[in-house]
Amino acid sequence: MKKHYLLLLFLVSFVSNAQIKGTVTDEKGNPLPFVTIFQEDTYNGTTSNEQGNYEFNLKKKEKQTVVFQFLGFKTQKIIIQTDKLPYSLNIKMEKESFSLNEVIINKKNNPALAIIKNAIASRKVNTVKTNRFNADFYSRGIFKLKNAPKKILGQKIGDFNGALDSTGTGIISLSETFSKIAFEKPNNLKEVVTASKVSGRDNGYSYNTARSSFYDFYDNTIDFGVQMISPIANNAFNYYNYKLESTFFDENKNMINKIKVMAKRDSEPVFEGYIYLVEDSWAVYAVDLDIKGYRMKEEFVDVMTLKQNFSYNNSNKIWAKNTQSLEITAGAFGIKFTGKYNYVYSNYEFIDAFPSKTFTNEITRIEINANKKDSLFWNTNRPIPLTIEESTDYVRKDSIYKVRNSQKYLDSIDAKGNKFKLLKVLTGYTYKNSTEKHSFSYEGLLNLGSLSFNTVQGYNFDSGFRYTNWKNQENKGIYTSISTKLNYGFAEDRLRVTGQFIHRFNNQNFATLYMMGGSSVKQFNPNDPISKTINTISSLIFKNNFMKLYNLESAAIGYSQDIANGVNLNGKIEYQQRKPLFNNTDFSLFNKDDLYTSNNPLAPNDFNTPAFEKHHLTKVNLLAKINFGNKYSSRPDGKFNIRNEKFPTLYLGYEKVIAANEKKYEFDHFNTRLTYDLTLGNKGVVGLNLKAGKFLNADNIAFIDFKHFNGNQTHIGQSARYLNVFNLLPYYSNSTNDSYFEAHIEYNDKGYIMNKIPLLNKLKSTFILGAHALSTPNNKTYTEMTVGLDNLGFGKFKMLRVDYVRSYQNGFQGDGVVFGLKFLNILE
């Protein structure tokens, strides 16, 4: 009975109200995928699916002409008698008869160069024609996984809610959207998503929005993480070689030039493939271009293939993009990923100007009932018919979703997972109630991932408990988390316990209440400039205990929320009792005769004098974060901020200490920070991080409360960028309780320079140039200059970086090499 029911659903998925439907094949009967199909002199169009099947609705009732267009094949026009609709129309396409008369094999007279020069000269004229428009937009995305292992790092990855078969292969994501879009170049967008469908989720929202689909080859660069050079960019001849492979005529007797695009240098951010240009107007007729992963610094991507097709309207004389596809292949460790995204643009309305308030900070809005459309709606309106694989996935996943979200199934899975075994006292235990959507977990006594070493605690590790309730998170954004962490240090023979409560009220302004408290060890610098992993290695192997710690007993309550678009305010009040700590171990694996420094950062050779006296106080902190020009996407289940990369982010902070056991510990501290990334087209990115602050009434405050700066004495870098660290600065050498200013600037060429240097371009790395400065009243200005290479590694794993650093403070201070191990961020 179940098999018959699934078969019925499968057949229903093919029911369509399309006026015309059929299959497009070549002369041998092979299906042709992604054939462009449109109503002549309109922007009403679609495309065939991977099996050559298509469905098409005419917008007008009188006799119409439907055009079938596919690169490499002769364009066909079919006159449709609307009084006979609906009916099936199968199309057999013939290969194009290309002309090679214009192709002259002569290095000094390459006809392709003249065509490209004309296209470059005509870019402005052609792009202005499509500067502003309204349109209907449809997208479909499918993502597949092949050969996925059963476990990764010992953890089961599951079957992705029924997506994977026994070989680890299957569709892990399939979704569709319909939108109404208004667009104005270069980047003004208003999109209203009217329908959204996600396979296996009856309440899901697709992320296939128009915002990520605008790839305009009339621009000099196209953003794929790095700025890829358009084959008709102003400077394209510096990057490409061209060959005119053939010419042919379209249905309107326009001569189309098929130009092969070839890279001059393999490592540059360039495309390869074909661009089709219309004679005389030099407009883009189509593109079929590959993007190799290493060229856009995405090593796990093998290749991306971008195809675009344009149609011409005789009434307004405009070539407009009607279909686009983006295909992705990627993988590592034998695991393969493939993705396919199809886009259809239709019903264009080109206008001279939009009303003044058309474009706001809201880029995308998903209508409330967008994910409630029934199968009749999708079968009637879907411009690209589903393939058998996609139809099967919808039917199968929707059935699995209903089963796996039933109370009976959830209770059975929970009952199995909730069984307690004595071994779980050591390894950890989780109790979960999936129906009520809450869980309780215990980390176990063998939480080896938390094991670390410092000279105060010796070897120490964590365990803990956590309760989480996410019953209303999916539709309202509400969740609650209560947790406690237990940390035990063997050399100190002391257990410390901390607790935390977090409750988020919604997904609209992200209002969040949090409380925390307990006993813990803290670094003097609250930014934790040296990680537990690096300190453990540095101490046990090199006997360098750079981490300096004190004991904190505290209780805090805080609240944060977005108070305006792009403005988040966070306030916290905290009682703190601070106590100095001393070294309790001299253990190391090597260099046993060497001595550790003391735990006093002010007197590294004094093992008896603490850095401060025991005291208590109350801190009030306010922090405002402002993303200028912030954009956002609105969904029924929340608001999602999208930072506007044109503008910087500004932080404004105020810290006040009150109710201290001695008046000398009380002070005021004003601080600000500005971060910004400036993209220089295809020439790289400049990152900027500026900080400044001023203490008031702080002459005798505790050293803990000084402004400490992120130094580095390990010669190991962990972050992807060094915009918040001084690479050779001793950790507490320039700490201040007065005014301060620090600046970090870093230029990453994204391959612009390195790609042009013989031999070095084989590394496929990027060139880094950095400058860092720190100014305080009681010290000479400290500066650093850095030069290095990023994106180093082996094969697909580009997780290394090397920098040469030279520092100055009252003259030359020193130099050194910093080795960037970016993968350590994953371990922390």
TrEMBL record:
InterPro entries: CarboxyPept-like_regulatory, DUF5686. Keywords: Signal. Residues 1-18 form the signal peptide. This is CarboxypepD_reg-like domain-containing protein.
